[in-house]
Amino acid sequence: MSETFTSISQEEAGFRERTRLSFDLDADICVIGAGLAGLSIALEAARLGASVAVLEGRHIGWNASGNQLGTVMPGFALPLAELIERIGFEDARELWALSKEGAEFVRANATEENMPGIAASNGVLEVSNVDAGDRLISRLQMLNGDFDTEAEGWQVDRVRAALKTDRYFHGVYYPRAFQVDGRKYVHGLAAMARRAGARIFEDTPVVSIDHSGIRKRIVTPSARLRATHIVLAGNIHLGAPLRRLSETLLPVWRYAGVTAPLGERLHEIVAFKGSVMDSDGVDHFRIVDGDRLMWVSPETTWAARPQRFAGSVKRRIRTIFPQLGNVEITETFGGATGHTVHGMPQIGQLRKGLWVASGFGRQGMNTSAMAGQMIARSILWGDERWKLFSPFELVWAGGVTGRVAGQLVGIWGRASSAAAGSLARYRERARVKDREREARLAEANRAAGTGPRRAPPAVRPRPAPVPEHAAQHAPQGMEQAPEPAVQDQGVAQ
After folding, report:
1. N or C terminus: which one in the chain shows less Cβ crowding within 10 Å?
2. Is 475 domain-assigned?
3. Are 344 and 395 in contact (CB under 8 A)?
């Protein structure tokens, strides 16, 4: 993955020759937003024979889609148990199966033939900040048995053999999950969509939308576009024409840092080669470029320059892996994602011919790919599986108040995770000390029992002395018997 952070790919170089929409155009489908979701829709719809136009206000992958770690695994941000509680077991199974299809869509695209330098590799490890072995067993049973997902439980010793830190306890290993160069993937996706026949227009913001009638009208600064279907895939950046939809998303910024080369000592401390994430959503990291560590910073609901988070990334690395010392952060990047109130993505038809694919914050690359396949097939094939997302309605995210609350919840969540982790490590140390104390006591007992043990002598009571005058007058045959000898039991004479 050496090209990932040191050179500009051919697709990125294409930014200098961006195509703007400067003429009126008709299309079957107009996709607004050239991120992961929008490009996945464009690619799948073009493959199925539709004419597709993608309108992007800036450039391909300019925000979070072009600045992510590239981890691909099944599932959603909403925990599986809560998903079952919300919509029932059978519908949860169907949604989970769709999330797996999304992951396979990425896998099929992310080949060296389609995307040179994509550097796909297998294996994702989810680790726990607390000692939760009992919950691990039930979760594995559910994943393997009920949801047909290959997952393997790792005990504490195995986790710590792969990651030299006492911060993590048990883990769940997903052998079929994988990671790719996230930057290359989004630009490779655009190249594949173009080859399939989709037309992508950058620097083309949407000024207004008229979604009435059979043919919808989209106005841009320099041209108009008509389409039978419009797909809103612009996340929190849809702008004034669709502000009400944007306000159903809580904007959350997350940044990542990449260290300078750390040499062989990195592999001694981080022996796991895939992505690592913790169950509380605090840590997410992996090795890139052979000996550099890419690490995500905590989330924030306010925008800032990525360089400001270099210090927090450095401190977090030092907290988890103090053996690495004071690492140097040589690059930072990141962007904003839209988080929904209910924790599930927004996928479906708002009204006839108007579709939404959004709310992918914390969801993973599989969900945007899943949305692309589902919406394209819904439009062109009549696939109605998007209705499985109907229980997750568009809910106002609270505006500025919601952002403040989201920031406080994030801080509280990280503090709670840190407190729970500290308590778990304290209990672990206490158990270790108890075992050591018991071992020392057992050793002392064994040492005391190495020679023969002397039993205390048996002492018999002496008979009461007979008065002299009584002895003199004792009858025949009743003379005082001689005092028996006291034996020393247990000792050979």
Report:
1. C
2. no
3. no
The verdict on residue 480 lying in a domain is: no
Please tell me the distance from the alpha carbon of residue 80 to that of residue 278, in angstroms, as a whole number: 16
Tell the residue number behind the tokens 């939809």, with chain if given: 245
In this structure, are 78 and 43 located in the same domain? yes
Amino acid at 464: A
Q: Which two tokens stand for residue 417?
A: 């995770």
**Tokens in use for 303?**
């925008």
pTM (predicted TM-score): 0.80
Count other Cβ atoms within 10 Å, centred on residue 24: 11
> CB atoms < 10 A from the CB of 377, how many?
17
184 is in which domain, residue-wise?
8-118+180-249+341-397
Q: Specify whether the CB–CB gap between 310 and 332 falls below 8 A.
A: yes
Quick check: is 467 in a domain?
no
DSSP 276-305: EEETTSS-EEEEETTTEEEEEPPPBSS---
- Contacts by 428-433, CB closer than 8 A, 24 or more apart: 428/131, 428/166, 428/169
Give the CA-trace dihedral at 396, 400, 404, 405, to 10 degrees.
-20
- Looking at residues 72-78, what average pLDDT do you find? 93
- Shared domain for 270 and 164, answered yes or no, is yes
- Give per-residue pLDDT as tens, 313-350: 999 999 999 999 999 999 999 888 888 888 899 999 98
- Residue 383, token pair as written in the block: 């696939």
The Cα 253–Cα 248 span in angstroms is: 16
